[in-house]
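_Backbone structure tokens_
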Amino acid sequence: MVFHGDYEVEFEIYEQREGPFGAKLLGHMVGVSPRDAEARWTETHSWESGRDVCIFAQHPKEEWK
């Protein structure tokens, strides 16, 4: 038997911003893909999808090496 958790990874969730710093770290969320992690984060934190601010998920930088 394979558990769903076997395929989940932790993503960093960012708020897209304009300006020199580009994005603000909002937190972390597990998911099977960046889109899944974004959806879970917005649901958990009652993020309004109609807001002008965009969020995105990516693997933490220390895993890039």
Q: What stands out?
A: The beta strands are 9-16, 23-31, 55-58. The first strand starts at residue 9 and ends at 16. The chain has a mean pLDDT of 76.
